[in-house]
Specification:
By secondary structure, the chain is mostly helical. 64% of the residues lie in helices and 1% in strands. A two-stranded antiparallel sheet has the order 1-2. A hairpin with a 2-residue loop joins β1 and β2.
Amino acid sequence: MQLGVIQRILGILLSLFSFTMFPPLIVALMYKDDTIMPFLSAFGLILTIGLTLWYPVRTIKKELRFRDGFIIVVLFWAGLGLTGSVPLILADTPELSITDAVFESISGLTTTGATIMTGLDVLPKSIQFYRHELQWLGGMGIIVLAVAILPMLGIGGMQLYRAETPGPVKDTKLTPRITETAKALWYIYLSMTIVCAVAYWLAGMTGFDAIAHSFSTVSIGGFSTHDASMGYFQSPVIETVAIVFMLLSGINFSLHFISWRNITVQPYWQDSELKAYLSIVFFITCIIASYHVYTNGYASFGKAFEDSLFQTVSIATTTGFTTASYQSWPSFMPVLLLFSSFIGACAGSTGGGIKVIRILLLFKQGMREIKRLVHPNAVFIIKVGNKPIPERIIEAVWGFFAAYIAVFVFLQLALMATQMDQVTAFSALAACINNLGPGLGDVSYHYGNISDVSKWILCFAMLLGRLEIFTLLVILTPTFWRR
């Protein structure tokens, strides 16, 4: 373990993060908010911490080892969650406790979208912007952005990229150099954000709302500047824009890169994960719409499908926008939508959940075991898109799934030990570990009424979900620390 290298990189990254206080500070000046000093103070404090960590070890320049990458990613995300809460703690509006501010900060950075705030419509514009900025930075991963510039500082980045990038296959690079890979991802991410913002503006949003919601749409975060979320606008056009960009953001960004570079949509048609992703969304939408019509909730299937599509896409991609109180929909529908977040978006996207590719591989593995029962001596190879999948990846997916279930059970029991009822505990944990946001029961609209202990447990769950379980769990094992 190279503690000096780890300390130096953390210092550099925190110092860089301190400069993210300037955009909301500019917004505060534009709208004459009383949050100028909180953001200035936060900038000074975070920069001081970063420089204090960096200065004593500034001359240590060594290549990162694999274990170092895990330590840096975990410490950086935890550190960001804590330091990102500073302006929220210092601001007079809203008045947040340390626990609430940390919860809101981690929820933003992990793109979960669970909030303890109410009265979003009257929040200072700078605070509104800051919440969305946190989600936008966390969407593609600040670590990936940092990887793009670390080589200029004499630091290799492949270990960071492997530890941060979501999905079961992490060794695939879009370009020969990891720096160029990170830059390519961010160029696509930035381009999508700009196009989304313009589309929202043309659809009728104000400039501020368009920028804020583009941040939370492309990052699949789900924060809104209004308590009614997307339902505030009452605009089918705005909802359509949101659906399109939520779906696009839920697709593996590697596909976007390959398609845009070669100016062809062929990679989309050939991708098995994308086909499964769209099929799942369409299937769940049809079920929800049909049941709405069956229960006389809608006069026509077309209108039911339209409303069901938005909610399904939002929950299935783990975005968390709402246009209606889906929690109060009849029968099994709220639970079905919540379960769709367990599947989540595609690997390599900004979405959360287990990821479609893992679910697809689990399904294929299950079918293979059934075939083996019928033909015990036959050899069956699991393929995705006509390409055989190595057994090592299948084993890793099963390991991830087992760890996911074990962690989920443990954390749910911990939440229930804080006197939280079963429905609230299950949905709150599902919403946080899948980086979704809205839950059921007492957390249907916000998380402000649950206990502080529950909030810290859910903060841990959000980090677990964002770092895909193993990245965080691995540093808690004795094996990791043995030489």
